[in-house]
Write a structure and sequence with these properties.
The complex is a heterotrimer of chains A (about 260), B (about 290) and C (about 240). Chain B has about 290 residues and is of the alpha+beta class. Chain B contains 5 helices and 12 strands. Classes of the chains: A alpha+beta (about 260), B alpha+beta (about 290), C alpha+beta (about 240).
């Protein structure tokens, strides 16, 4: 081991000059600080949904939460690949990718494997896969702009796109996350808040059935705080789902008018 | 996973319902755990953990690097898991990659805490050598050698054991360099600093089969699960991370119940693991 | 660089014709049909065998013999410097092929038509001679799986540095760039099944070096036989005979 002891000066690593200092507002002992966008701690960003964003897809949806902009298209149900074995229930294939311009630093625009598998796990419990045996439903999510809480937005938007595609669901899936700063819980964190959070909790649920399909916690949490965070998320997702539902109704109304 | 017959499925489910599983365990009993440390000589620390038919190896390598500009007072830790095809033929080629990513992400979530570094099981500030300039980068690698269910718990235990086996070379900063230069350092190859692992959490996975939940599920039992929750719990009985697996929806109150059961189980596991690690290290010294 | 000191000792203190400590353990992976761990000094290799079983890919099925497949993987921590290699790089593809061909030759494939045998070798620690260690581990794993074989194949390497033939090169000696002869040997049939060499060597010296490697193979074979015998005795005892 001692041979490799020379400091790694030979490699050039550009260090971003932005965000070098910690913003002083994120101090856990300070109760009066305001969030960068002026929201209250338990206030979500305004949510905007629109279905039918992509014509070529069987169903699609666009979602905008503050700066987070996401587009999801659903293809299928269509024939599974030949190499796949026979299956008496349908398959779900999810992929989440970022555009190269979605982040402040130009990214690779490649698939985010972690989010893809999370999206899959969040949705598979809500889809009635028995209704389309031997076939595959593809869900492609593209994050146009990353502005914090990307995965929850992707999940909610994907369930709306699935509904738009006419795929049988037990319920719409809504997802909300909270960030933890010291003693405080912040719902629907923006990107800069996410970068300094002490922990986070994300819930994906089907509000009408009152069931959680996915839950992740990072950081150190006491049971009381988990309780509080979960309740906060569940309430918010109930409200979120009504917005999603009204968006679906609206699009259905325009279709019937035509 | 080989297909199970209807009879076998019923046998597993029925056994779990009656609190007597196919291998004679109760619902909340672990299989015997055996820990062996210092199994890979090239690494700074390593351990092999066996839980029944499951066998994993974890290694820790420390390299000097530059701390992140956002956190100049902290070192860096990254976790990678590999699934060897020896464990399961389907892991051949790229077959194991999906599971490997899932395990790596879950482990990072359970052990590394939030973005700000709070709640991390590994004390990142102890890895700093010169603030803002030089720190230790820990590379934790897990390898699944043989798989018989409950890989996440086994990997968590192996990482804990490997970390307590890790000796980080002592570094002497020879000259105080100016603000922009990298300081000159001298890495000792005789003196090692022991790593404090008292804060490293253990991971407990509760697998829900039917209406009951079990710990340390075997591969057969895992194939019957509707969902599973992995909780990492530290010495202070705080949850340090949680991951849900399996697509089926679960009522929120059930999740809270599972968390409290998980905490209870983790205490026993933590004590068992600590004594196993101590025994393994004593063995090694002999 | 001096690889053999004037006193006739190598870098790790061995004599030129001395092998590293070898150790083998049968049944290291409980879920596999056959498995073995093989150590040569610091080189540590795990092999697992699955099969004979149904052929996964129908188009590869052969009606007159079994299909033998092999995959060689190196753990990320197996070498001194940490790196993450993509799977299936050229070196591992080549070694997979070498192991597959060597093992296929000694398995009685015609006895198991329309079936498939998978050999997976995983390098846990690499310190030179991984190729040989992999073949030895695979032999033991195949024997543990109860797959009919003509004979056991054993392998050992030898090199030629500082005008001295050296048995069983370690990593430092291997990377010195000198000739490196790897031999696969069937001890009972007294036949060579695998022969590979890097670099160049005069023919008369080559014969010496190869003979040395063959001697190494024989020594490995003796040890492997002992291990197999012991494990069979254990099985017999478990059965209560």
């Amino acid at each position: 081991m001692a041979k490799k002891a020379t400091p790694a000066t030979s490699t050039y690593s550009p260090s971003p000059t932005t965000h070098k200092t910690r913003p002083p507002i994120f101090r856990s002992d300070d109760v009066d600080w305001v969030r960068p966008d002026g929201r209250a701690f338990h206030q979500c960003r305004p949510a905007f949904f629109r279905t039918g964003a992509v014509n070529a897809a069987s169903g699609s949806a666009y979602a905008e939460f503050g700066n987070t902009k996401v587009i999801v298209s659903v293809f299928g149900p269509r024939e599974s690949k030949k190499a796949m074995m026979y299956s008496d229930i349908g398959r779900l294939n999810c992929s989440v990718s970022y555009t190269t311009f979605s982040t402040p630093v130009r990214g690779q625009g490649s698939e985010n494997k972690e989010f893809s598998s999370m999206l899959h796990k969040a949705l598979e419990g809500a889809i009635i896969l028995e209704t389309f045996p031997k076939t595959t439903v593809d869900v492609f999510a593209l994050v146009l702009e990353s502005g914090g809480s990307d995965l929850p937005v992707v999940i909610s938007c994907a369930s709306l796109a699935l509904a738009d595609a006419g795929i049988m669901l037990y319920d719409l899936v809504a997802s909300v996350s909270v960030s933890c700063f010291g003693k405080n819980l912040l719902i629907d964190p923006a990107l800069e808040e996410e970068n300094y959070q002490d922990g986070s909790l994300m819930i994906t649920c089907m509000p009408s059935r009152y069931e959680v399909t996915q839950l992740t916690i990072t950081g150190e949490w006491s049971t009381a705080k988990i309780n509080e965070g979960m309740q906060l998320c569940l309430d918010a997702s109930c409200k979120l789902v009504t917005i999603m539902r009204s968006c679906l109704k609206e699009s259905a109304a325009t279709v019937s008018e035509e | 996973m080989k297909g199970l017959s209807v009879g076998e499925k019923l046998f597993i489910e029925g056994g779990i319902a009656q609190d007597l599983r196919t291998d004679g365990r109760r619902r909340l009993t672990y299989r015997p755990i055996s820990v062996e440390t210092d199994v890979i000589s090239q690494a700074n620390g390593s351990a092999r953990v066996r839980m029944g038919g499951t066998e994993v190896i974890a290694t820790v390598k420390a390299e000097l690097g530059r701390p992140n500009a956002m956190q100049p007072d902290k070192g860096k830790v990254s976790i990678f898991v590999d699934c060897s095809p020896t464990a399961e033929p389907t892991f051949e080629g790229r077959g194991g990659e999906e599971l490997a990513t899932e395990l790596s992400v879950s482990l990072e979530r359970c052990l590394l805490g939030g973005k700000s570094g709070a709640g991390a099981g590994i004390d990142l500030s102890s890895l700093i050598v010169v603030e803002g300039k030089l720190c230790w980068d820990l590379y934790i690698e897990g390898l699944v050698v043989s798989s018989d269910g409950n890989l996440l718990d086994a990997l968590g235990a192996a990482i804990k054991a490997a970390l307590s086996n890790t000796g980080i070379p002592k570094v002497n900063v020879s000259a105080e360099a100016s603000a922009n230069e990298q300081p000159e350092v001298d890495v000792s190859d005789e003196e090692f600093l022991q790593f404090d692992t008292s804060g490293v959490p253990v991971i407990v996975t509760l697998t829900k089969v039917g209406r009951h939940y079990i710990v340390d599920a075997t591969l057969e039992e895992e194939s019957q699960m509707s969902s599973a929750i992995s909780i990492s719990v530290n010495r202070h009985c705080h949850v340090c991370g949680l991951t849900k697996r399996g697509g089926a929806g679960v009522d929120p109150s059930v999740i809270l119940d599972m968390i409290s059961v998980g905490k209870h189980v983790s205490e026993q596991l933590l004590n068992k693991l600590d004594s196993e690690i101590a025994a393994a290290e004593a063995d090694e010294e002999e | 660089m001096e690889f053999v000191s004037p006193e006739g000792l190598r870098l790790d203190g061995r004599r030129p014709m001395e092998m590293r400590q070898i150790r083998a353990e049968i049944g290291a992976v409980s879920k596999a049909d056959g498995s073995a761990l093989f150590e040569m000094g610091n080189t540590k290799v795990l092999a697992a065998v699955y099969g004979p079983r149904e052929v996964q890919n129908r188009s590869q099925q052969m009606s007159n013999q079994a299909l033998v497949r092999c995959e060689y993987t190196m753990a990320n921590f197996s070498t001194g410097d940490r790196m993450r290699k993509p799977k299936g790089d050229r070196r591992s593809t080549e070694i997979s092929l070498v192991i597959r061909q060597t093992m296929e030759e000694c398995i009685l494939t015609h006895l198991m038509p329309r079936s498939q045998i998978d050999i997976f070798v995983q390098v846990l620690q690499a310190d030179g001679g991984t190729r040989s260690a992999c073949i030895n581990a695979a032999t033991l794993a195949l024997a543990d799986a109860g797959i009919p074989m003509r004979d056991i194949v054993t392998s050992c390497s030898a090199g030629y540095l500082n005008s001295t033939p050296l048995l069983d090169l370690n990593y430092v000696e291997d990377s010195a760039g000198g000739p490196d002869v790897t031999v696969g040997f069937l001890p009972k049939l007294d036949k060579v099944t695998l022969l590979q060499m890097d670099s160049k060597l005069p023919v008369d010296i080559f014969e010496n070096v190869m003979q040395l490697a063959i001697e190494g193979c024989k020594a490995v074979a003796n040890y492997i036989r002992e291990v197999m015998l012991e494990s069979t005795k254990k099985l017999e005892y478990c059965r209560g005979a």
